[in-house]
């Protein structure tokens, strides 16, 4: 055979697959289904990154394999195309974001096409398409009508230079991640979604899905459910009470001071009574410049100021204790105030040490005395109560329950469950997003548009520049903004904020099931058949935002009767990053970015696919290696050259490789399902070494090999299939079967002895008959038996032949 030419072969098959609509998915409800999903990309100006093909190839492998196994497979692709980078590019280059998006999508699509993915391109979706975002808006209206969307004054991170609200993750060391300008807090009225109403359902649902453990754990931590109590502390000689949230009400006798957040309203209320007001103001100033993350970092040096003039009374023993303000207490969690128990809490301990505040030990370890002067004692599992009045002698768990009952009975507190999860800030003051379909009327308040008014199109604007006062560019479009109230017909104004990028991706997997439906986001039949997604793979960085948001929307739509399953995704896996050769993240500034186009050009798409699967364990990050790429190309060349040693007449397996064939089918089949693409490829590499060793391969062996390899390297294998006269197309063939019994080695090496001394070894079938084995043993001994008198012939099955002779 000629050298393998990836240029012609890959183009040829991509065209045939397109022409034949090879991977078009029908909604054929009679077949068993398999819905494979990868996170749709943001079509950035940089084009495809080598990180993209890793998950796309992995699920393409599974999709192709399942098709060969007779499943009706849905493996779709689309564009998550609203968002900031496109808008910023549009501003800078004075082009419409629509045009930018179109150009970027075309480039991405061409790149993905060149990699030979089996996506059904007839189901392509784009979140910026009005036929698509009509339904994003429709879901928002449903949320609004269900009372789950509301407007609220919120302090947001405001970049003074970009003039945009930033997410917490976008603020690094108090400055804007993008431009480095200082970020200030600005109070703005924002749309919020009540994801917190679904906190328990989002937690419980995790028990019913097959997500990798670290995804479940990080969702659980993000939701952060904790059980505790609220307790009221009286302020001495004042009317007010200071309410705290604690997960350790058992330690109430050990509370030696209180801490309130610098933003706590009690501070302003007693302004006149506070003697060190200047110090308080100064401290609050400083705290306002820090992010919540910086404030609560355990390692940081504790700071704070005492509220001079106010004290509190511990309700359990009527002791008077001081009240401090410190930034380690957040206004956004619990009640914004805590009772400090320095003997048993690490942060309180550090604070007490720094300001020489008293400590009272109230829990004792089972292993004798503990030194609370050296560190806080935080063990709850074995602890017993001491110095605690009616609680003394109880275990921590018993004491918790008893105090909770006591607090409830005396009406000075109650049981309380808290969550770390916050409501979802759903407004963006930007142009390139879905318009929020709400108008504001002075008489009627916030009024939703009628469903028939959707999609509410994004109007053309003169400038995409955000405004100085923090309003969206849409606010300048007075023609569009001024409208009539759907409720009373009076004058009203449209909402000018747009939705965040997370909106379109919160339900896109529903749309793929029925992407052109004009009556509904998808038909009930299509949803019933395809849901849940059987396997969803995506980045770890999307575990807490996208994955949680989309589960929230799905659960809401389930409660509304729109979707048939309580969970959107049955299985979730995650891939590791591909790093540069130096083991660092690929970036322009490091100059270590690999362009997938270059690899496809030089070595071919099949090589890139094989390499990205062979690079290492799928869930771990891996460093790029040019040698690794070349090695994978060599492997494919070797598969190609097997044509030169083909035994065309044998459509079965050769006897000596039969076990190996069955073993390889078994291993590759199961590895593909278990994210072990690298070991599957290694098994195929080992198999072809065996063909090279004997310089021959049967037709049956070759067909099986290329069928197994087809999901990884679809072009070269399809070409070989055609050359060796395979019937039809390779992608239409059945997945190879193996027999369990034939995966175990059936031949054994036995020793052939004369008078107990081994002379030769012999390869026999485990089940071969005794007479047959003895005959072959004597033949193998050749002239060694000449002139000898055989007395006895012994065969220990599968182990030894011993000829006793004189
Ligand atoms: C007294 C106490 C004693 C506490 C003890 C802990 C250990 P999780 O599990 O995260 O819910 N806390 C409450 N509100 C806070 C706020 N707004 N900012 C910072 N810390 C706050 O943690 C609950 C615990 O975190 C609460 O229980 C409280 O400290 C603190 F030995 O109360 B604890
Ligand atoms: Zn009105």
TrEMBL record:
Domain Methionyl/Leucyl tRNA synthetase per the UniProt entry, residue ranges: 40-187
GO BP terms, alphabetized: leucyl-tRNA aminoacylation
Catalytic reaction(s) noted: tRNA(Leu) + L-leucine + ATP = L-leucyl-tRNA(Leu) + AMP + diphosphate
One term under GO cellular component: cytosol
EC assignment: 6.1.1.4
Binding site for ATP: 588
Domain Leucyl-tRNA synthetase editing, residue spans: 220-407
Matching Gene3D superfamilies: 3.10.20.590, HUPs (3.40.50.620), Isoleucyl-tRNA Synthetase, Domain 1 (1.10.730.10)
PANTHER family noted in UniProt: LEUCINE--TRNA LIGASE, MITOCHONDRIAL (PTHR43740:SF2), LEUCYL-TRNA SYNTHETASE (PTHR43740)
Record-stated family: Belongs to the class-I aminoacyl-tRNA synthetase family.
Name under which the protein is recorded: Leucine--tRNA ligase
Gene: leuS
């Amino acid at each position: 055979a000629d050298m393998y030419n990836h240029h012609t072969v890959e183009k040829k098959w991509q065209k045939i697959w397109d022409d034949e609509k090879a991977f078009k998915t029908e909604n054929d409800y009679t077949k068993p289904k398999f819905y494979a999903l990868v996170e749709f990309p943001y079509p950035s100006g940089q084009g495809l990154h080598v990180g993209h093909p890793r998950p796309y190839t992995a699920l393409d492998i599974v999709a192709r394999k399942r098709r060969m196994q007779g499943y009706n497979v849905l493996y779709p692709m689309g564009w998550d195309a609203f968002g900031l980078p496109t808008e910023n590019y549009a501003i800078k280059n004075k082009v419409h974001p629509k045009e930018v998006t179109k150009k970027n999508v075309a480039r991405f699509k061409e790149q993905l096409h060149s990699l030979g993915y089996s996506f059904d391109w007839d189901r392509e979706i784009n979140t910026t398409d009005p036929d698509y975002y009509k339904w994003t808006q429709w879901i928002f209206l449903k949320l609004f009508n269900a009372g789950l969307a509301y407007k609220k004054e919120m302090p947001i991170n405001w970049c003074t230079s970009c003039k945009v609200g930033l997410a917490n993750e976008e603020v690094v060391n108090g400055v804007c991640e993008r431009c480095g300008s200082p970020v200030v807090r600005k109070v703005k009225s924002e749309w919020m979604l009540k994801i917190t109403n679904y906190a328990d359902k989002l937690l419980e649902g995790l028990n019913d899905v097959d997500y990798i453990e670290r995804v479940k754990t990080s969702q659980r931590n993000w939701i952060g459910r904790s059980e505790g109590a609220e307790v009221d502390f009286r302020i001495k000689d004042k009317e007010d009470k200071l309410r705290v949230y604690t997960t350790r009400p058992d330690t109430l006798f050990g509370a030696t001071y209180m801490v309130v957040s610098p933003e706590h309203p009690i501070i302003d209320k007693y302004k006149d009574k506070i003697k060190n007001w200047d110090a308080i103001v100064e401290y609050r100033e400083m705290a306002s410049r820090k992010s919540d993350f910086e404030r609560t970092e355990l390692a940081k040096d504790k700071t704070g100021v005492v509220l001079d003039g106010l004290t509190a009374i511990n309700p359990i023993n009527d002791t008077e204790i001081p009240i401090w303000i410190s930034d380690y207490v957040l206004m956004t969690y619990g009640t914004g105030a805590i009772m400090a128990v320095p003997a048993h809490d690490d942060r309180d301990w550090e604070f007490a040490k720094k300001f020489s505040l008293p400590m009272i030990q109230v829990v004792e370890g089972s292993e004798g005395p503990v030194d609370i002067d050296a560190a806080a004692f935080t063990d709850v599992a074995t602890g017993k109560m001491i110095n605690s009045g009616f609680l003394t002698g109880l275990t921590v768990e018993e004491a918790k329950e008893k105090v909770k009952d006591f607090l409830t009975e005396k009406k000075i507190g109650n049981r309380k469950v808290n969550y770390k999860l916050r409501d979802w800030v759903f407004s963006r003051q930007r142009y390139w997003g879905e318009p929020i379909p709400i108008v504001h009327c002075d008489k009627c308040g916030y009024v939703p548009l009628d469903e028939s008014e959707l999609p509410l199109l994004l109007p053309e604007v003169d400038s995409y520049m955000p405004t100085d006062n923090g309003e969206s560019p849409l606010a300048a479009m007075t023609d569009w903004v001024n409208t009539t109230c759907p409720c009373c017909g009076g004058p009203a104004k449209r909402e000018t904020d747009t939705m965040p990028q997370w909106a379109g991706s919160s339900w896109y997997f529903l749309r793929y099931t029925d992407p052109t439906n004009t009556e509904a986001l998808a038909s009930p039949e299509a949803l019933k058949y395809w849901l849940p997604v059987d396997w969803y793979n995506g980045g770890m960085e999307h575990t807490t935002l996208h994955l949680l948001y989309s589960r929230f929307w799905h659960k809401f739509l389930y409660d509304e009767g729109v979707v048939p399953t309580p969970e959107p995704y049955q299985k979730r896996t995650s891939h590791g990053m591909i790093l540069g050769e130096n083991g660092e993240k690929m970036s322009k500034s490091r100059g270590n970015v690999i362009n997938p186009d270059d690899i496809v050009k030089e070595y071919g798409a099949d090589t890139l696919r094989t390499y990205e699967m062979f690079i290492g364990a799928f869930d771990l990050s891996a460093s790029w290696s040019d040698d690794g790429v070349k090695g994978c190309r060599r492997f494919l060349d070797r598969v190609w050259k097997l044509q030169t040693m083909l035994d065309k007449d044998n459509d079965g397996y050769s006897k000596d490789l039969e076990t190996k064939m069955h073993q390889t089918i078994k291993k590759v089949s199961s590895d593909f399902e278990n994210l072990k693409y690298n070991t599957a490829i290694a098994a195929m590499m080992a198999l072809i070494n065996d063909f090279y060793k004997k310089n021959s391969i049967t037709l049956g062996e070759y067909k099986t090999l290329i069928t197994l390899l087809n999901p990884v390297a679809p072009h070269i294998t399809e070409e070989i299939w055609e050359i060796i006269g395979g019937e039809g197309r390779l992608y239409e063939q059945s997945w190879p079967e193996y027999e369990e019994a034939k995966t175990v080695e059936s031949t054994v090496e036995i020793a052939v002895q004369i008078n107990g001394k081994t002379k030769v070894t012999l390869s026999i079938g485990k089940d071969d008959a005794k007479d047959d084995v003895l005959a072959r043993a004597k033949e193998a001994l050749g002239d060694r038996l000449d002139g000898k008198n055989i007395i006895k012939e012994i065969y220990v099955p599968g182990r030894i032949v011993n000829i006793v002779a004189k």
